[in-house]
Amino acid sequence: MADPAHQAEPADEPLAAQVVEDLAAGLLVVGPGLRIELANPRAARILGRSRASLLGADLRSVLPAVAAQLERAGSSSEPERTAVRHRDPGGREVTIGFSISRVGPDPGAGGGQLHALLFQDITQVTRLEEERDRLLQLAAVGEVLPSLLHELKNPLAAAIATLELLLEEVSEGPVQQDLHSVLGLVRQMRLALDGLGPLSAAGPVRQNAAVDHALAEAFRILEPQMRGRGIRARLEVPAMPLLPLDTGGLRSVLFNLMNNSIRACKAGDEIALAARLADGGATLEFTVADGGSGMTPEVLRRCRELFFTTRSNGSGVGLALCQAVVDRAGGEMRIESEPGKGTRVTVRLPVRAQGDEAARPGGVVRGEPAATG
User: Is residue 7 over pLDDT 60?
Assistant: First the structure.
């Protein structure tokens, strides 16, 4: 009577082959000389190559970092794990997590050693981990940022007030021009600090404020930066009644939108800020429009995601925080963009007055706006 164990062996081989073919992970078997002896379909898909091009290839030309680790491992029988970034022939970059194991001698290569490389595409997992780390860093900064901003903004407000008083006392001439230059720089510093804030306000508050002047001031503070880049600036902000909205939050939103536009524009392009009271005075609406590079449909779809950025030195925080503050204020932010034609961002915020509004004369804000602390 035949040994049952020997009877099962022929059935095991096709089963094992089918398991290799159907594995949800990539599998490469590497023989002597780092030659790839076996590659399953999933391995070919993850690596962006045909299965035929993998079989017989030198691992050093396919996955050089893994090949180097395999050479260092030598004859160790302990599994090793690693993660590498891989760019396939089509230019797609993925992060791959590997487990490397010695599986025994290769009978067809004079007793040489075989290694099995089991791997998966962990690109999304890696991105989530990176975003988690950035979020933790942001949370750590957020704990100390309010007190730090408070310590910086108070002396800046005092410096602005002092410079404005000095400008009233000095006559026209070089000293007055220098003071105007210093005042402009200090105001820009204050605006930048507003842009670093948590953007938690911008909605209705109890105290009425000169919203039109706050928007115009923020725009004019950034005008020198636009002129320095050869970007044309256009401001259309009509005089409005005092409104119960937080000007610091509004300047923060505008600062982020303007910075995005400035970075997207080149010499000769234009950035325009327009504001108005809509819906019979129940809504403040302002629009930042630029003629810059614009966004692709994919970037436009994701631009409000926290930490999403297309710039190597970008944080991916600005638009996400702007959207958050607009949402908290019960408003809406609409973004329209087209590659090569620019971007238009419209923010609408509800105005809920606390008592009577103090009206001011109509017209358009064109001159130097009044300072807002």
Answer: no
| Structure confidence by residue, pLDDT tens digits, 208-263 | 889 999 899 889 888 888 999 999 999 999 999 999 888 878 888 898 899 899 99
92-106, 139-153, 189-203, 295-309: range with lowest mean pLDDT: 189-203
- Report CA 7 to chain centroid distance, whole Å: 61
> Does residue 155 register a pLDDT over 50?
yes
The span from the CA of 5 to the CA of 226, in Å, is 81
Q: Which residue has the tokens 């997207």?
A: 264
Tokens describing residue 363: 């017209």
| First-residue to last-residue Cα distance in the chain | 99
Q: Is 257 exposed, middle or buried (0-12, 13-18, 19+ CB in 10 A)?
A: buried
State the DSSP code for 369: P
CA distances from 221 to 224, 235, 247 (A): 7, 12, 15
The edge-to-edge listing of strands for the beta sheet with 80-87 is 36-39, 26-30, 112-121, 93-106, 80-87
Place of tokens 């001439």: 173
Task: Kindly give the interhelix angle for 211-228 and 247-264, rounded to the nearest 10 degrees.
Answer: 20
- What Cα–Cα distance (Å) separates residue 328 from each residue in 125, 179, 192, 200, 322? 30, 39, 22, 8, 10
Query: Are the CB atoms for 366 and 248 separated by under 8 Å?
Result: no
Query: In the chain, what percentage of residues exceed pLDDT 70?
Result: 76
